[in-house]
Amino acid sequence: MCETCEEPRWSTWSLFNCSNYENHPEDAEIGIAVITNMERAAMITSTMAERICTVCGAEFEQVVEENALTPYLEHDIERFKSSGYAIMKDVEIVGEY
Q1: Low-confidence ranges of the chain (pLDDT < 50)
Q2: What's the pTM value of the predicted model, to 2 decimals?
């Protein structure tokens, strides 16, 4: 592996559901899909464990982490939005590098 190579900026999706999303109003989102990379994924997970849902005040739980393919990010965004997720960049959760 190349020591000077960096991981792509957007390589991982981390999805977090509100632990109480079943009781959200029908038009409310069920959770948050965060685009990040493996370098920052642990920081995102620990930060989200401390956050609460703005709809109901419940905690978030991580439900899946999947690879993001840069050419298909727009497809992923539409897929997650249609599934009820708010889309956020990692910097919106934990700030800049």
Answers
A1: 1
A2: 0.89
